[in-house]
Design goal:
heterotrimer, A alpha/beta, B alpha+beta, C mainly alpha, B: alpha+beta, Cytochrome-c3 Hydrogenase, chain B, 2 domains, 15 helices, C: mainly alpha
């Protein structure tokens, strides 16, 4: 579904939430991402009921958190992006209350990119081990110098 | 009378015969019944996404082989399709057909392995597994003819496939296509109406369509719940719009249907390959591309229907020769999200079988 | 002392030979020599058969699975079992730190000992039995009961949760299946009019398999459970419990368990052929060989089942024991009791009549159980027809 259409359908019900759009994607306010997703999921005529993927891209100045939604009844896809700033704890609400499938993927995005999803039931590292330093998929990630700290038990 | 019992936590994995690699579940038991389950993954994490950022676009193809290592062809396909979308390139017709043939054969391989290990988890002492492996070997022989490799094929290239199929490939494929349905009949005769298989799997760990969609399930496991969703139909890529096939849909979303959908999909795959063999015409198999693949800034995501579900590479290009970001939407990983719904309340044996029925691959889960 | 063994010709010969050397005064020495020789012979032959059987099982399962099986060591891989045993002997013997060492070390012995002990009452051939106990069947039940204790010992002492799971499953299952087993033995004892295994064997004018097929089926199922074999192998369910109660065992202790398990199959075959497959036909020159053939036939069927059938779940296994096999074994005992009262001489024509009645009962029971099983599991008779709909899109 083109981004322009998505902007209109989002802004109709949640004014001033969709910020900008390109041919495929729509950027929304990060703090409203849960409402936007709920809207896209439940509104008649949109019905994006399958959360295909959640991930994030590090653009150094900001992170784009990318939600790829699929509507099975309408055979359409929508790409919703939320731009979060800051390197320390870029935070936005979790959509795991809407989709159980978001749980693992948000954990992965947190683990590899350090994007914090507030309201996630179990936000901890998933692919790297407990006690891993840093978030390896960030553009400024550097491997810690040796001796390397490996997990002890756990 | 109620007995006072104490919950017991058992780690299934990372080293366990039926966790298909290094998957780990922390299961909490009350007697034999499961009270809680927590998946723990990451033991096979190789940082494929990070590695992809350090390599040229073409070099990433070899990395994709090692994701879902029983379905390398479809991984290749998903990756090169996304690359082609970045530059608006399309493979020539013959290349597309060869891709479909390879991908469908790979689907058969993957489903055979899935079925075999599913039965292995049921306790069938490797006999069905060996039967599945026997057919898989024949398909891997075909792959060897195509590209010289059996598992890590790297057959697909940006703009087509590595090379045209050699002359001996076609008679061998013909022979396989003639014999495979009989083998599948044999396999089904052993499994599908087996009383113990039925008693063990029918109605066990049922998942409703709502749950499945909510848990972002895709692929055969989603279809087993009765949702008619197949990316080969919904968003046809390569030559899938030119072949006729049915989408196999289950009813109950239980372990049995997950098995049955796979075994029926093998038959549909045979049908697709048959049509491809009829329709394929001589011609180039690979579009001429620049020596160095250097797409303009932008992003692309082309999902394909991999044997495990929706597989896609989300490529972000900054105009350089290396992907700026390469996110892998791994179906095996995301299909694990409903583990708790599937297992809590069932017995330990059922949990193992449910795990087998998900048919996940640790190479893809941990990436 | 030696009277019990006098009927055994081999024992008699050795005894006579020894007494000829040492004289009547040292009869106890002759007795010891003869007994030791017999024990050595029987136990070693049994264990050698057990190792040979592991090779046979692996080869045959290999064929079932369309592969070759072990064929590297010796001709046809015959020495594979020896190579394995040597490997196990030289392996480090690891005992978990948290294990209960004494029980942990005793468990393999407790596993192997009862199966060797049970050999005492098995009639291998016409005169080849060690003891014609008049309570032979009871003795068999008593010795086989020790095995479940050994499993529990192993599971408890390993202090491993998989092992504990396996042990709990094993004890629940073994005890449940002992009941139908005993009921079948009771029916056989009724039919033979004796609890001595030799009498049971000789009283079979036609094999009891034909007279009481239901009993034979129940016995086969129950003994499969006792042997922890597929489809009742939940005790060491490889895909669930890794190796069940064996998980923490390594080296030759594991080897002893392994050997005991395979030897138990042979023992079960021996019991089955004694109870149900009758004696030996008049044209067989060597009754021992005929006995071996029957044991091998049983073992082959056991391998066949193991390589074909998936495993049941624990609750289903309990259902089979208590809701299926137990009532059926009661029916079996009742039917045979009535028949024995009606035809007390148990001559050949009478046994044939009994057989006809029992075959009827078996057929009815089979159909009823199948129906009930399918109904209770909510299974359709032809599930493949409706479970999937194909959509042309």
């Amino acid at each position: 579904m083109p981004g322009g259409q998505l902007v209109t359908s989002i802004n109709q019900r949640l004014p001033e939430t969709a910020l900008m759009a390109d041919a495929e994607a729509v950027w929304v306010r990060p703090d409203a991402i849960r409402e936007v997703c709920a809207l896209l999921k439940e509104t008649q005529g949109l019905e994006f009921n399958l959360l295909s993927s959640v991930t994030a891209v590090d653009y150094v100045e900001h992170f784009d958190v990318v939600y790829r939604l699929t509507s099975i009844p309408r055979n359409a896809t929508a790409v919703v992006k939320a731009r979060v700033f800051g390197r320390e704890r870029p935070t936005l609400p979790s959509v795991s209350v809407l989709w159980k499938g978001a749980e693992l993927q948000e954990r992965e995005a947190y683990d590899l990119l350090g994007v914090v999803f507030s309201g996630h039931p179990n936000l901890k590292r998933i692919l790297t081990w407990e006690g891993f330093k840093g978030h390896p998929l960030r553009r400024d990630y550097l491997e810690p110098p040796l001796p390397y700290s490996w997990p002890h038990g756990g | 009378m109620t007995l006072h019992t104490q919950p017991v936590v058992v780690n299934i994995g990372p080293h366990h015969p039926s966790t298909h690699g290094v998957f780990r579940m922390r299961l909490t038991f009350d007697g034999e019944n499961i009270v809680d389950v927590e998946p723990v993954v990451g033991y096979l994490h190789r940082g494929t996404e990070k590695l992809a950022e350090e390599r040229h676009y073409t070099q990433v193809i070899t990395l994709t082989d090692r994701l879902d290592y029983v379905a390398s062809m479809t991984n290749n396909e998903a990756y090169v399709l996304s690359c082609e979308r970045l530059v608006g390139l399309e493979a020539p017709e013959r290349g597309k057909y060869l891709r479909v043939i390879a991908a469908e054969l790979q689907r058969i391989v993957s489903h055979l392995i899935g079925t075999g290990f599913f039965l292995q988890d049921l306790g069938a002492f490797a006999t069905p597994l060996m039967y599945c492996m026997r057919e898989r070997e024949r398909i891997l022989d075909l792959f060897e003819m195509l590209c010289g490799a059996r598992i890590t094929v790297s057959y697909m290239r940006i703009g087509g496939v590595f090379q045209d199929a050699p002359d001996e490939f076609w008679p061998a494929l013909r022979k396989l296509l003639d014999e495979l349905p009989r083998y599948i009949d044999e396999l089904e005769g052993l499994i599908t109406t087996n009383e113990i298989v039925l008693a063990r799997t029918k109605g066990v760990s049922p998942v409703t369509p709502e749950q499945a969609i909510n848990g972002s399930w895709t692929g055969p496991v989603l279809r087993s719940t009765g949702v008619d969703w197949d990316l080969r139909k919904a968003a046809p890529y390569d030559a899938y719009d030119k072949v006729a096939f049915d989408v196999v849909v289950g009813e109950n979303g239980d372990n049995y249907d997950r098995y049955l959908v796979r075994i029926r999909e093998i038959r549909e795959s045979i049908r697709i390959v048959e049509q491809c063999v009829k329709q394929i015409e001589p011609g180039p198999v690979r579009a001429t591309t620049a020596m160095l693949f250097k797409p303009p800034p932008g992003e692309a995501y082309v999902p394909v229907e991999a044997p495990k579900g929706e597989l896609g590479f989300y490529l972000v290009s900054d105009g350089s020769i290396k992907p700026y970001r390469c996110h892998i939407r791994a179906p095996s990983f995301i299909n694990l999200s409903l583990l708790r719904e599937m297992m809590v309340g069932w017995k330990m044996s059922d949990a193992i079988v449910s795990l087998g029925s998900l048919d996940f691959n640790m190479g893809e889960v941990d990436r | 002392m030696g009277d019990l063994l006098r009927e055994n010709t081999l024992y008699g010969n050795i005894y006579d030979w020894a007494i000829g050397i040492v004289g009547e005064d040292l009869a106890w020495l002759a007795y010891t020599v003869a007994v030791m020789a017999i024990i050595l012979l029987v136990v070693n032959a049994f264990l050698a058969m057990g190792t040979l059987y592991t090779w046979a099982e692996r080869r045959i399962i290999g064929r079932f699975q369309s592969r070759v099986g072990p064929n590297r060591v010796g001709p046809f891989g015959l020495l594979q079992a020896i190579a394995d045993a040597v490997k196990l002997l030289f392996k480090e013997d690891i005992v978990p730190r948290a294990a209960d060492r004494i029980v942990f070390n005793l468990a393999p012995i407790a596993m192997l000992a009862p199966s060797v002990m049970a050999l005492a009452v098995i009639p291998f051939g016409q005169t080849s039995y060690l003891a014609n106990l008049n309570i032979g069947l009871l003795y068999l039940i008593a010795t086989s009961g020790i095995a479940s204790l050994a499993v529990m010992m192993a599971g408890y002492a390993s202090s491993n949760r998989y092992a504990m799971f396996g042990a709990m499953r094993a004890v629940a299952m073994l005890i449940s299946y002992e009941i139908p087993l005993v009921m079948v033995l009771l029916a056989v004892a009724l039919l033979a009019g004796s609890m001595s295994l030799v009498d049971v064997m000789t009283s079979q004018a036609i094999p009891f398999l034909l007279v009481t097929p239901l009993g034979a089926i129940i016995f086969f199922l129950a003994i499969s459970a006792e042997l922890n074999r597929s489809p009742f192998d939940i005790t060491e369910a490889e895909s669930e419990l890794i190796a069940g109660y064996l998980t923490e065992y390594s080296g030759m202790k594991f080897g002893v368990f392994y050997l005991a398990e395979f030897a138990n199959v042979l023992l079960a075959g021996a019991i089955f052929s004694t109870l149900f497959l009758g004696g030996w036909p008049w044209w067989t020159p060597l009754s021992h060989v005929w006995f071996l053939v029957k044991v091998m036939a049983f073992a082959f069927i056991a391998i066949w089942v193991r390589s074909t059938i998936p495993r049941f779940r624990i609750d289903q296994i309990m259902v089979i024991a208590w809701k299926v096999l137990f009532p059926l074994s009661l029916v079996n005992v009742a039917a045979i009791a009535i028949e024995v009262v009606a035809w007390p001489e148990r001559t050949l024509p009478q046994l044939v009549i009994m057989g006809i009645i029992n075959w009827g009962i078996t057929a009815v029971a089979t159909v009823a159980v199948t129906r009930a099983w399918r109904a209770s599991n909510g299974l359709r008779v032809s599930p493949s027809a409706r479970a999937v709909r194909l959509e042309v899109g």
